[in-house]
Amino acid sequence: MSVRYAPVGWNRNKIIYDVVLLAAVVAYILLYIKIAPSFQDVTKPTTGTILRAQAFGTCAFLMLTFILCIGPLARLDTRFLPLLYNRRHFGVITCAVAFTHAATIVSIYYSFSPLNKYVAVLASNTSYDRFLGFPFEVFGIFALFLLLVLAATSHDFWLKFLTPPIWKAIHISVYVAYAAIVCHIVLGSLQSKQSPLLAVIVGLSVVLVAGLHLVAGRIERQKDRNAAERADEAPWVVAGTVDSVPDGRGIVVPLEDGERVAVFRYGDKLSALANVCAHQNGPLGEGRIMDGCVTCPWHGFQYRPEDGCAPPPFTEKVATYRLKLDGRRILLDPRPNEPGTYVEPVQVTEA
Fold first, then answer.
1. Cα separation of 11 and 23, whole Å?
2. What's residue 2's pLDDT?
3. Is the dihedral of CA 335, 336, 341, 344 positive or negative?
4. CA 21 distance to own-chain centroid
5. Where would I find the beta strands (DSSP E) of the chain?
6. DSSP assignment of 85-111, as one string?
7. Which CATH class is domain 237-347?
8. Hey, where are the domains in the chain?
9. Considering the entire predicted model, what is its pTM?
């Protein structure tokens, strides 16, 4: 969180994240240029410029594949959460790599066209009535446009200006961009490549992205079905036991109406908040207590556990819930309080 909008809120973790990512991109480009010619069965050797274009193109595709896998991986295993924290930096770098690929391709194939080279990209092939030979360029242009929009609106200023629901809807289009890139490759490079390696890579990418999302979605649905059981005293429900909540962490309690509540333990106290972060709907229950505040695992937004308010000067609020103990059982009132309502924490005594 930052008090005022700045181009980038740098910290040590972000710097390390970006340095490692940029180093990996450079290493991949150099490795591709070195190794790729040995996998190409062509009469005339591929030029260095074309190799660079291919390197940037394949790198962007693999990066986008990895970006789409981070979300479900983080849900399946919390050890992947650090990759999630700065995923927007990953997306901006991916856009830059994809743009470099597009600019290189245009300079190679369209610089000597009698038309303007950017017009020629669309005018050189108009066979929209057939599958083989379909102008695959339109899919690449469309995907690049979406990536540019996502990169340009990645900062929290746009999240605040557009409101979280609209911003989130726009950024879900990353899946549309991914589908467009797959079509771009299938109708383009795969039509001319003799080696099956690229086809295998694209196929594995689609299976990996779709498979991880399906598995993570199935697990989430199963959690939602296991709604907290009702306690003997209405309307309270059983959220779990004291021992099931690790100190400094939380558990997520699904309710019958589909809502989720995050129950946190901090020392000898228990508090409950809505599981949805006010910033970007992140899962608060998968976060932890830092500096006395519940910290969202997505972008670090924080809330005081007893009243659901972000510490000053921030103004975000989430709903709070009442808790009480029945022996070692934690009972939860499923009726939410107004966001920012103070609720006295439940005191935990050792067994």
1. 18
2. 43
3. positive
4. 16
5. 237-241, 250-254, 260-266, 269-274, 288-290, 293-295, 302-303, 320-321, 323-326, 329-332, 346-347
6. HTHHHHHHHHHHHHHHHHHHHHHHHST
7. mainly beta
8. 12-223, 237-347
9. 0.78
